[in-house]
Amino acid sequence: MRDPGSELNKLREDNLYRELKYGASATGRTFHSGDLSLLNFSSNDYLGLGANEVIKEAVTETIASYGVGSGASRMLSGGTTPHLLIEKETASFFGKDSSLFFANGYGAALGTLGAILQKGDTVILDKLCHASLIDGSRLSGATVRTFPHNNIENLKTILNSINKENQKEKRILIVTEGIFSMDGDVPPIKEIIKLKEQHQTLLLLDEAHSFGIIGESGKGFAHRENCINGVDFLMTTFGKSAGAAGSVTVSSRTWTELILNRARSFIYSTAPMPSQAAAALAGLRLIKGKLGEERRGTLHRNIDHLCNELQIPRPQGAIIPLIIGDELHALKIAENLHREGILAPAIRYPTVSKGSARIRITVSANHSEKDIAFLVKKIKKSLNNI
Questions:
Q1: Deepest in the core among 18, 60, 97, 298, taking most CB within 10 A?
Q2: Among 266, 270, 246, which residue's Cα sits nearest to residue 258?
């Protein structure tokens, strides 16, 4: 039997060992841990809504009315009005018929992909898709194919190679992201949709990192590109821009009913707390309102400022990767920044491919120009010391 201690030692030798961080708050511009107060450039709270009073009030009021736990799966008695409201309003916001609320993004990915796909089907993913999408695809039983990141020609080759016999009984699903979580770039979505229509496939788009920060009223990448009608399944999370928690899969009513009946992560889980659904709904309403518009403006000004100062390409969203390459060098830079009062983590294999370790900077609307200037100064110092 393998010794777990030996496996841990190997992770340490390869500079891939990880430890949990604990803080008084993971949202906002600072991360407090013990006596330490660090400028937080690691949070996905892009619009700075994680500590918003409106969301906090929604939570406390819902707990007062519904209690804390939901008590059962939604297939039994765990469903409440807040669950219904977040699903109805999210579907309407994205211009689709229906949606299904999950406790988190990972559960949504596993449940949705497992419901859509089965043995004999084919799922084709961009190689840089999130681990939850990869895991959900593998667990579905479908044949899993991947194409190099944003490589349309390779995707075309894969689609042409698939045996179309008895296609009425099979499904082909293409999976990509609105903004990729580690590189911060976007897919050639219109070209993907064109291929999807030519080959009569389905398309799932994960908008976790684009919802709230791009597109009209924060509707995300597909809406910004005016191609939402070409997306069959839109997934997003409320744990980033919305400052809350939970995730949804948005689709047609028929597809939602199928997911509801087959998604094991939905069926065999206690329903998310009613207060979680209420927090997500409050976050959604803030995103599409005046405050959301103001916060998006501030966020994009911060991104522009940081990229100009570092003289690096401007990403589509709030994720700015500084590619270092070597895992040990990336760790040393992150440690140097930590000593200088900045939390900006080193991202290593298996989250990214070997040899592409990086410092992943995420910018928030809560950061000030002074914060950005301080970060730039310390990054340049850290890079010069390696």
A1: 298
A2: 266
Same-domain status, 66 and 150: yes
Global pTM exceeds 0.85: yes
252 flagged as catalytic: no
**Each residue's pLDDT tens digit, 121-150:** 999 999 999 999 999 999 999 999 999 999
Among 252, 287, 322, the domain boundary falls at 287
Q: Is 6 a catalytic residue?
A: no
Of 83, 170, 240, 367, the catalytic one is: 240
Give me the catalytic one of 209, 219, 367, 378. 209
Determine the Cα–Cα distance for residues 126 and 15; give it in Å rounded to an integer: 27
Q: Is 130 considered catalytic here?
A: yes
Report the CATH number that the domain containing residue 163 is assigned in CATH.
3.40.640.10
Q: Domains in the chain: how many in total?
A: 2
Provide the residue range defining the domain that includes 83: 53-287
**Of 40, 70, 83, 130, which residue is the catalytic one?**
130
Can 181 be counted among the known catalytic residues? yes
Looking at the fold, whether 225 and 90 belong to one and the same domain comes out as yes
Q: Which of 44, 98, 140, 251 is catalytic?
A: 44
Whether residue 141 sits in one domain with residue 43:
no
242 plus 96 within the same structural domain: yes
pLDDT (average), residues 298-324? 93
Q: Where are the alpha helices (DSSP H) in the chain?
A: 4-13, 53-66, 81-94, 105-116, 131-140, 152-161, 189-198, 221-224, 253-262, 264-267, 274-287, 290-310, 327-339, 369-384
Q: Are residues 272 and 302 in the same domain?
A: no
Is 44 catalytic? The answer is yes
Express each pLDDT in 56-115 by its tens digit: 999 999 999 999 999 999 999 999 999 999 999 999 999 999 999 999 999 999 999 999
The domain boundary, picked from 234, 266, 287, lies at: 287
The verdict on whether omega for the bond into residue 350 sits within 30 degrees of 0, i.e. cis, is yes
153: annotated active-site residue: no
Percent of the chain with pLDDT over 70: 97
- Look at 140-154, 165-179, 235-249, 263-277 and tell me which has the smallest mean pLDDT: 165-179
What would the two tokens of residue 61 be? 């009021």
Active site residue 240: yes
